[in-house]
Amino acid sequence: MNIIIIGAGIGGLTAGIGLKQHGHQVTVYERVEKILPVGAAISIWSNGVKCLNYLGLTEQVKNLGGDLQQMAYIDGLSQDTMTQFSLQPLIDEIGQRPYPVARAELQQMLMQEFGMQDIRLGMNLVDIQENSEDGSDSIQAIFADGTIASADLLIAADGMHSIAREYILGKKLERRYAGYVNWNGLVEIDPEIAPDQQWTTYVGEGKRVSLMPIADHRFYFFFDVPVEVGLENDKSQYQTMLKQYFAGWCPPVQKLIDTINPQTTNRVEIHDIDPFNTWYKGRCVLLGDAAHSTTPDIGQGGCMAMEDSIYLIRSLAINTNSLDDALKRYQDVRSVRANDLVMRARKRSDVTHMMDPATTEAWYADLRKEDGTHIMQGILSNMVGNPLD
């Protein structure tokens, strides 16, 4: 088939790579003229890594990943260790090590593997039309510059603000503010801030400060703060604001705030979208955030997009009754799993960010009694049901 993919993000590119491997002609159209990642890094849990392994990218993702050996929660004010444990039992259970990676480096690797010659940048999708009256059974993507691209299938991996989602559903879905703002970026690993092989999270007051090791001796960091939506976003004030938000927190947190470069730090107001079940219409199908926009609280957003890609690739390959049949099978399986994870992430977000103070304080108390078993069971439960189990 001749296939158009809208969006050169993680989901669109993984789908493109796999579809090319199955002999399809694939072109990716991306709105921006220059690829600038949203967010500094991404947690690729074992289910996501398995998707990349399936595409033959095992060594490539391994080279991008940090050496993540253990996990710890630290009281952000007192610096007491609440729980600390090895991730090896989880790795042994699932059969694959997770990798935190720099998002830009992952995206560049996927673009190179897909083929830069088949990526069209600066192409802003404005409309979709299907044509079956003349027997051609095609779909057209119409872009802001007047370009019209025709294909047998259009895969919309165009993110939370998806144009294709509105086309499929016949209405625009409103985003829901999750109640917190996230600042994130990259810094050099510093053992005075956190151990170099550990995912370290400082918690307290409904806030989080988290660090994960990625390749080339760097930490991915993020700060979460529950604040109202729509506040001024001034990079020159990031450190001052973070000092205020984390006043009284322990020395490693203060050193991290002093270390960050505000100009390369991202600030994101976290939103999600209520789950829905209709993922396709005719020859247009949704994938990734366009289908299931989630908060990042269980680290499965990117992994779900990759799972979508693998399942869609396989559905198109093995279900030969019709294109409609293959897309329906993809929709009916993936929507159930993805919608469940969207709601799990929403629930975890509320607990973590003190939407109910008593619930969050109870979670803090549980962390102090935790040996890692329950946390790893939770992480594993998010990965069970992926297309490569």
Automatic annotation (TrEMBL):
What is the top-level taxon of the source organism? Answer: Bacteria
Which cofactors go with this protein? Answer: FAD
Residue ranges of domain FAD-binding in the record: 2-345
Q: What's the EC number here?
A: 1.14.13.113
Q: Write out the catalysed reaction.
A: urate + NADH + O2 + H(+) = 5-hydroxyisourate + NAD(+) + H2O
Q: Give the pathway listed in the UniProt entry for this protein.
A: Purine metabolism; urate degradation
What GO terms describe the biological role, i.e. biological process, of this protein?
A: purine nucleobase metabolic process; urate catabolic process
Gene3D superfamilies (alphabetical): FAD/NAD(P)-binding domain
What is this protein's name?
FAD-dependent urate hydroxylase
Q: Which organism is it from?
A: Acinetobacter marinus
